[in-house]
Amino acid sequence: MADRRALTKNAYAYEEVRQRILIGALEPGRILAQSQLAEELGVSLTPMREALRRLDAEGLVFIDAHRNARVATLSAAEARHLFEVRERMDPMAAALAAERRTPEDIARLEAAARHLNPLEGELDLRSLAAHREFHRAIYTASHNELLINVLEGLWDKADRYRLVGLQSRKDSAADRQRVDKEHRQIMEAVIAGNATAAEKAMLEHVQKSLGRRAIDELEARS
Q1: Which residue in 203, 212, 202 sits closest to 168, CA to CA?
Q2: Is the pLDDT of residue 2 over 70?
Q3: Which residue from 61, 75, 73, 67 is spatially nearest to 17, judged by alpha carbons?
């Protein structure tokens, strides 16, 4: 969970509630008793309300007209919408990154790649964070602020569905080898300045992602 010593009360409340939502400790649809949650975390209502407003803006929490808060639900439709956006925008970001990357961008991408680890379990938040940093390095290298902000804004929502995909079927050794190969192909294409190859590699990566698996799982449940 979040390291309280390194964060302000607002940031601590936000990170703690966010992580509880991502791992399912606060399950989809659950009403959040704000006073109780604030007491559990050792913060006042003011930072708790600010944290919930931030999570509402990110789509992880829903706050109604009466200021009641609940964890946003999961749906096959939303999973598909997220997948459709990523299927189009992530390859665009990779192509732009190949065209515009700087030496600093390359160094950041290589550093992020060194920290990538296969997902070992459904609550493997450390590996999810490393995966996010790898993709963030590519988004940043696109040098398109609007594109970066859109993709960053979708990431937390997408992580919830990645966990659904992982819970439905854990990655096999072959899955992990494939994902590692896909990451290397994306990185090598970006570094080489090959926009066509970067776009193609990223598209294949997204199409075989946990987000795609989550759609199948949620459709099967409905």
Answers
A1: 212
A2: no
A3: 61
Identify the CA nearest to 1 among candidates 20, 21, 14, 24.
20
pLDDT given at position 103: 98
Tell me, what amino acid is at 161? Y
CATH topology of domain 76-221: Four Helix Bundle (Hemerythrin (Met), subunit A) (1.20.120)
Q: Whose structure tokens read 């964070």?
A: 129
pTM of the entire predicted model: 0.84
Query: What is the rounded CA–CA span in Å between residue 51 and residue 30?
Result: 16
- Alpha-carbon dihedral angle through residues 17, 18, 24, 29, given to the nearest 10 degrees: 80
Residue spans of beta strands (DSSP E) within the chain: 31-32, 61-63, 69-71
CATH topology of domain 4-71: Arc Repressor Mutant, subunit A (1.10.10)
**Domain residue limits, the chain:** 4-71, 76-221
2 vs 99: CA distance, rounded Å: 37
Distance, CA of 26 to CA of 73 (rounded, Å): 11
